[in-house]
Amino acid sequence: MTQASARQRVLVVDDDPTVSEVVGRYLEHAGFAVAVVADGRLALDRALADPPDLVVLDLMLPGLDGLEVFRRLRAQAPVPVVMLTALGDESDRLVGLELGADDYVTKPFSPRELVLRVQSVLRRSSAPLAQAQGTILRDGDLVVDIAAHLVLRGGKPLALTAREYDLLVFLLQNPRQAFSREQLLKQVWGWEYADHSTVTVHVRRLREKVEPDPRDPTRVVTVFGVGYRYDPSPVVSAEELV
Amino acid sequence: MTQASARQRVLVVDDDPTVSEVVGRYLEHAGFAVAVVADGRLALDRALADPPDLVVLDLMLPGLDGLEVFRRLRAQAPVPVVMLTALGDESDRLVGLELGADDYVTKPFSPRELVLRVQSVLRRSSAPLAQAQGTILRDGDLVVDIAAHLVLRGGKPLALTAREYDLLVFLLQNPRQAFSREQLLKQVWGWEYADHSTVTVHVRRLREKVEPDPRDPTRVVTVFGVGYRYDPSPVVSAEELV
DNA sequence: GGAGGCGATGACAGCCCCGTGACGTCCACG
DNA sequence: CGTGGACGTCACGGGGCTGTCATCGCCTCC
Fold first, then answer.
1. Closest by alpha carbon to A85, among A109, A65, A59?
2. B77 pLDDT band (50/70/90 cuts)?
């Protein structure tokens, strides 16, 4: 467990050799690189010298108390921890949860289940990015998260109304295309016939929130005599801007 | 699969030999006793003659329709069923879940994932005691222990009602996603059509218990004209707060 | 350069949507 | 049989959203 490798590394902290041996075997069989230590002091040293991807920590430990080990582990690094607790000991469990344990297994437990939980926690904690499953639209400093129904500009959330949001999304999804007001009314509003000025006004309000300079729009551009078009920011190097 | 044994027995129903062979191998490797049949008629006969602990059922079957097989299986005995469905075919999946399938996997799927689901379903249905372990959801000072059906905030247990709990768990499991009231009614309440205000009111009550300042919600955020969204506390460094 | 037309702007009224308080019912428990 | 909590529903009120219009400015074409 000294070198970075494709395999994820798990540190098992338990003073009972029977437990740690079985657990270690199962984890290795599941493809993990496993290290085992028998008390809290060693666990801290080991974790500091060679940080694992996850720690399986028995709360009942000789010497240093398990919760204390847990606290210090977390003080060193935000490593995911799966706790092993006695069935009855609810207080420890609560304290552990509060301190930030990622999961727990009560004794007696099936090694297979422990492996499942370890995998599950690693999956959860290693892929917070994959959570952003929804489609993301992007243009310059503009970011639209469809699933979240959220618009960011320069990292800050933008307060768009429902209509403004719909309009922006439609335009972003169809960049570099000019649309007449009729088309926009039909596509965004779902209306067949209506007052064109509705579109005009909403475009204005959208510009005020989306354009660097609303009076000289670079994103939502008017095509005189026709309608509007979304122009994505050109990908330019700095000198081209001069 | 004729005698009761320590190993749990799984019946795989799929007409594609490639699929059933791979699935069978993985399940056996995971310690299950596996039987494979290729069509629905045989599946029913087999299940009746020698009831398995769980059935893996492909919904796309020659001869008897998969859903029909499912219905008759359940008519015979309350055996847990994990469905295999085509990715696009949401209608079948919904019907299956509606009828009481315990889990589903969409094609293409990884055999390992299927094994995990099979194990998970069996654990759920066969070992209510082992449920004393739990997946933990977390956001800031909020901690939800699914197995314990327990919610902590700042270390103190929170008195949520059943609906409030369901709502919170659903939102926590789907953070950063905006849901309409219809969607929430369907997902959390299991209703098809109902009064939207039901959602509104429950959101309010949940906020009163979960939000630091219920009148300025930061967790359960309303998306005007759309619905609600759960925003996890941002993980920020100090300087970003300025 | 001037006239006509189109788009931008500011303002406003109606309305929709959300939050809130309150009430009736159902169910569990004493 | 009475009590209390949970749940769904409703009426009310306020604030924001939305569509419309009049006016002004600017683009286009002659």
1. A59
2. low
